[in-house]
Design goal:
Elements lengths: L3 H18 L26 H6 L36 E8 L9 E8 L4 E5 L6 H8 L7 E6 L2 E2 L5 H7 E4 L10 H6 L9 H10 L3 H5 L21 H12 L7 E5 L7 H14 L4 E5 L3 H4 L4 E6 L2 E6 L1 H7 L2 H13 L1
Parallel strand pairs: 3-8, 3-9, 6-7, 7-8
Antiparallel strand pairs: 1-2, 1-4, 4-5, 9-10
Helix pairs in contact: 6-8, 11-12
The structure holds adenosine-5'-triphosphate and magnesium ion.
């Protein structure tokens, strides 16, 4: 079974305690990156991750390596094979996934090796399957077929708390908690929500330092419209808070950012990625972005199209390949002219 509930467990308990202490009775909404509390009320933002989790885990049979099928694979030696037992990294083996109740495969025949410490960018059109892939990796969903190994161990055999500590994640559909800044950020690592210094560090790393400094009560400022004295933030400011949440997991060795800068202006985007790069030393990083200046920084670029991997390699290799990536890159470069 999918363990969304397990991910949610500590947050839910924490919220119960918070509610018991709070006269406002304000609740929070689910957030995949911070363990969704399924019983909490929603602010109305998307909750695809929490909602779709249940029942997704049927029949993880052995897939006979369906293979990526379409397209060329640039970049030598990046197929499956950095195998089980060798430790070191993430390995998708013949992974396929269908959303519950859906006929179509969101992902199929995914064979992908990401050695420890590597930086990877996932690119592809809307609906290609990028977010689904990282949600499988963080076990918000389980593969319908095939398996995913982390350091040689099947994700299903790794205790959820341990797995969660390994990942710092900012999801595309992150949520906005109608709670104080402290909780909005601290939920990234519940056990450290009272550690003011750590929360403040995460705020700075997320690029939210200025935003929070301008608030009268700093970390204790309530966010959102539910509070009479709550501070409403812009989309970009909420995103910085959500990014700070990902940076609460200081011990995590795998960072995942799903289009972290979609609501940021160009200057803020640059700042976020500079910081991200600083923090990613020695860590495995997976970035999903539609912006090529960001994408090309990755050591390995993986192109996903209609649920399969069609190309992978460095920026230069993929441009030379003159396939899908090269076309997408040329199209966007044209837009900048
Ligand atoms: N919760 C869900 N329930 C059912 N189908 C879903 C769900 N989430 C995504 N899908 C479908 O799965 C496919 C892959 O979606 P996914 O969100 O992974 O794409 P993506 O590459 O991240 O796209 P984008 O660039 O727009 O973020 C799409 O066909 C999408 O409609
Ligand atoms: Mg997506």
């Amino acid at each position: 079974m999918v363990r969304v509930d397990d991910w949610a467990w500590s947050t839910t308990n924490w919220l119960r305690r918070a509610w018991a202490c709070s006269s406002s009775g304000t609740a929070a909404t689910a957030d995949a990156s911070a363990s969704p509390p399924p019983t909490a009320m929603s602010t109305g933002k998307t909750e695809r991750a929490a909602g779709a989790g249940a029942g997704a885990g049927a029949g993880a049979g052995a897939s006979a390596g369906a293979g990526a099928g379409a397209g060329a694979s640039a970049g030598a030696g990046v197929g499956a094979g950095a195998g089980e037992g060798e430790g070191g990294g993430i390995l998708f083996e013949g992974v396929g996934f269908r959303y519950p109740g859906k006929e179509a495969w969101a992902l199929r025949g995914i064979d992908l090796a990401i050695p420890t410490g590597e930086s990877v960018a996932l690119v592809g059109e809307n609906g290609a399957g990028k977010t689904t892939l990282v949600k499988l990796l963080t076990r918000l969903y389980e593969p319908t077929e095939g398996r995913i190994l982390l350091d040689g161990r099947d994700l299903r055999d790794i205790e959820v708390g341990e797995l969660r500590r390994r990942f710092g994640v900012l999801f595309q559909d992150f949520n906005q908690y109608q709670l104080r800044v402290r909780e909005n950020v601290g939920f990234g690592s519940i056990e450290h929500v009272d550690d003011g210094a750590r929360v403040q560090r995460a705020v700075e790393r997320g690029g939210a330092g200025e935003v929070v400094a301008a608030m009268t009560a700093g970390l204790e400022t309530p966010l959102g419209r539910w509070f009479q004295d709550g501070t409403e933030l812009s989309g970009g400011q909420w995103q910085k808070i959500a990014l700070a949440r990902a940076f609460m997991r200081e011990e995590s060795d795998i960072l995942v950012l799903d289009e972290p800068t979609a609501a940021l202006d160009a200057e803020a985007e640059h700042a976020v990625f500079e910081r991200f790069r600083e923090l990613s030393h020695g860590r495995t990083t997976i970035v999903i972005s539609h912006r090529f200046p960001t994408v090309r920084m990755a050591k390995k670029i993986v192109v996903i199209d209609h649920g399969t991997i069609v190309e992978q390699g460095t920026h230069d290799e993929l441009v030379a390949l003159d396939g899908k990536y090269a076309r997408m890159f040329a199209l966007q470069a044209e837009g900048y002219r």
